[in-house]
């Protein structure tokens, strides 16, 4: 805005003009681009069922603010699209998830050094999670013991990692005993309980875990004792060891916590 002094003439009498100078402001208006902020948009694609990328409607896209650690989530529209408004000078991570699907990889987004209206485009790929019905032998125990062995921690940590990466799966922990152990069902329950306690302590929601106890009703071999009359009385310790175990099996692929809601970023 520029101030200019302009002369204004008034007639004081019939013969003389007296110039009077008034300070008037004259505005120079310069056209400026309107700042509309920074946005992130993209499309979530289903990449498992076909070699072509199919837009995935109803996928959940989560944006994590790396400064505040707050997150906001939206669901994709009918063409798989999503959009967020971003804060300036901020780092983010964005990823997509969907029930019965693998999560997309995390993508790093930054608005640092962006000083004008801009749109960042980032597509995300998800793939359908295959159902793993058959049980897999997980960990083993000592005789008449529910204590975790050192060799079990690596296996349980891998399970924690998998359940963290795929937050929609529900897992069954089935525990067993050999035929010689006392209080077989109670011992099996304790074995499942100690596994669940470990997983929960490492961040897995207890609602995603189902405990089962089977005692010696599901032996992996012919080592049944049958009240001291069965072939189990002649089995080796290694054969009995196979039956003192906990197994892990995926039960469901559609878990979502009840309080899973987006928050402001």
Instruction: Give me the CATH superfamily of the largest domain.
Output: OmpA-like domain
Shape label = elongated
Kindly, what is the distance between the CA atoms of the first and last residues, rounded to a whole number of angstroms?
38 Å
CATH class descriptor of the largest domain: Alpha Beta
- Rg: 34 Å
User: How many distinct domains?
Assistant: 2
Please state roughly what percent of the residues sit in beta strands, choosing from under 5%, 5-15%, 15-25%, 25-35%, 35-45% or over 45%: 35-45%
Oligomeric description of these chains: single chain
Number of distinct helices: 3
Determine the CATH topology of the largest domain: 60s Ribosomal Protein L30, Chain: A
Summarize the structure in words:
With 265 residues, this protein is an alpha+beta fold. It folds into 2 domains: 38-128, Immunoglobulin-like, CATH 2.60.40.1120; 136-252, OmpA-like domain (60s Ribosomal Protein L30, Chain: A, 2-Layer Sandwich). The protein is 15% helix and 35% strand. It has 3 helices and 16 strands. The chain has helices at 150-165, 184-201, 237-241, and strands at 2-11, 17-26, 38-46, 54-55, 60-65, 71-75, 81-86, 91-97, 101-102, 107-110, 118-121, 124-128, 136-140, 170-175, 209-213, 245-252. Strands 3, 4, 7, 9, 11 and 12 form a 6-stranded mixed β-sheet that branches. Strands 6-5-8-10 form a 4-stranded antiparallel β-sheet, with no helix packed on it. The radius of gyration is 34 Å and the shape is elongated. Residues 1-33 and 261-265 have low confidence and may be disordered.
